[in-house]
Amino acid sequence: MRLKVALRHAFADFTLDATFEAPPGITVLFGRSGSGKTTIVNAVAGLLTPDAGRIAAGDWVLLDTERGTRLPPHRRRLGYIFQEGRLFPHLTVRQNLTYGAWFAPKDAPREDMGKVVDLLGIGHLLERRPGALSGGEKQRIAIGRALLSAPRLILADEPLAALDEARKSEILPYFERLRDEVSVPILYVSHSASEVARLATSVVALEGGRIVAQGTAAEVLGDPAVLPAGAREAGALLIATVVSHHHDGLTELDAGGAPLFLPRIALAPGTVVRVRIAAHDVILSRTRPEGLSALNILSGTVKEVRPGEGPGAIVALDTYAGRLLARITRRSADALGLGPGVAAHAIVKTVSVAPTDIGGGIRRAAPVSPNEPGR
Question: Is 272 in the same domain as 195?
Fold first, then answer.
């Protein structure tokens, strides 16, 4: 089931005008604060009625302003995951998980409680109360509650924003499993390029209420003209396969036939992974360098050099491993004679890739729910 959204809404100092489709998996609404992400989610949830628009998934219409259709929020069958868990403190985890199901239609396709508990690894928490849970555990319960409410859609509004880095690392793998194993579309709001790289099936990049790019995570993050989170957050996404784990603590990946070494990744050989390479961690050379400590040297051809407003520039380099971005000074770009078609080599330090920038690649397993919601 694909979600189709077309919205237009004017505020006093801001106008949202956005049209996009969200397939099964995670569609990330990506951009800075004030770009229109939460306005879109609120319109889908029924918390905002836009000036004009249509929101539908197949023949299920949530909103059609032209025809006067507007389902109230409680009839939209949405699972909503907020920045904070918002669990009922007087209920056990089990009771919080099943709360949303009370309001779903009796004949609605439902997720199996046991499978959801296993998916999120929360079996040992079922009889506890929220006050005894960590922030990461509370978010896992909130995810489970959304799944068990028999939703046709899931909305996640910056669900990791309130967590520290350790808790984010704990929760990200569960969202990866949701992306791969749940059959309903998920709209996920974020301003983090790392979250986009790890999670997105598709990306809708927003600036000032307008869509500036949409496509796969690799396509959007690899476009030097699209930097909705700013140049400091620029970075491209590579898809690679785990080859082997070496005795010195490094994992070797195959990235389009090119070897890529990273600190040990706890995944079996043959596993497909996503690796975000930050643009500020890439150094360029016209000749293949020798005598460096860096293990990762990827050869390619310059696709584009895009100067910034200051002294910097973003260079897009197409390699066998995929598109890389490098953030360098314009002076360096001029000194190297970089331009479209010029051969160059990208140097990436092994230890510069953060663990949060490495995640499982999309795999399509059988969905948790035996029936696609809405049928």
Answer: no
Dump pLDDT digits (tens) for 167-202: 888 888 888 888 888 878 899 999 889 899 999 999
Q: How far apart are CA 346 and CA 179, in angstroms?
A: 31
Kindly state whether residues 255 and 341 are assigned to the same domain: yes
Q: Is 367 a member of any domain?
A: no
Closest C-alpha to 317, from 329, 304, 330, 327: 304
**Same-domain pairing of 248 and 125:** no
Query: Is 323 within a domain?
Result: yes
The model's pLDDT over 98-122, given as tens digits with 9 standing for 90+, comes to 887 776 666 666 677 888 888 888 9
Tokens representing 125?
């928490």
Whether residues 144 and 19 fall in one domain: yes
Domain-located, residue 350: yes
Closest CA to 342 of 284, 296, 286: 286
SS3 188: strand
CB 221 within 8 A of CB 233: no
Q: Are residues 149 and 117 in the same domain?
A: yes
Same-domain check for residues 142 and 13: yes
Mean pLDDT value across the chain: 88
pTM of the model: 0.86
| Residues 177 and 268 both lie in one domain | no
CB-based contacts of 308: which residues, under 8 Å, 6+ apart? 231, 314, 330
Query: Helix, strand or coil for residue 301?
Result: strand
Q: Give the tens place of pLDDT for each residue, 142-172.
A: 888 888 888 888 999 998 887 888 888 888 8
- Name the domain count of the chain: 2
| Distance from C-alpha of 227 to C-alpha of 115, rounded to nearest angstrom | 38
Cα separation, 116 vs 121, in Å, equals 8
Rg (CA), the chain: 22
Which range marks the domain in which residue 121 is found?
3-221
Residue the block writes with tokens 């106008």? 15
Q: Tens digit of pLDDT for each residue in 230-282? A: 777 899 999 999 999 999 999 999 999 999 999 999 899 999 999 999 999 99
Q: Are 226 and 241 in contact (CB under 8 A)?
A: no
Whether 347 and 240 share a structural domain: yes
Closest among 350, 359, 313 to 332, alpha carbons compared: 313
Q: Give pLDDT tens digits for 298-320.
A: 999 999 999 988 899 999 999 99
